[in-house]
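# nightly structure sweep
# worker-07 picked up a monomer target from the shared queue
# config: single-sequence mode, recycle default, output format = structure tokens
# input follows
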Amino acid sequence: MGKQYSSGDTGLCPYVGHSGSIILNWDDDTVVSVECSFGNHETCGYANKCELYQRKPVGFVQTYPLKDKSVQ
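# output follows
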């Protein structure tokens, strides 16, 4: 296990028809779980096409920006 932290995102939920928010739980640079303000992404019938969830779904690996910000 690496560094664990949470971040958030907001956007439109197609299921309820208005904006909402999600909390992304990270382990280093990988999303390990997503908590949606409208329910559980695992049982939501719209998770596979929900733009809010698909931006950073479970398993997403952040590759940018690079941790090493030194000038080469």
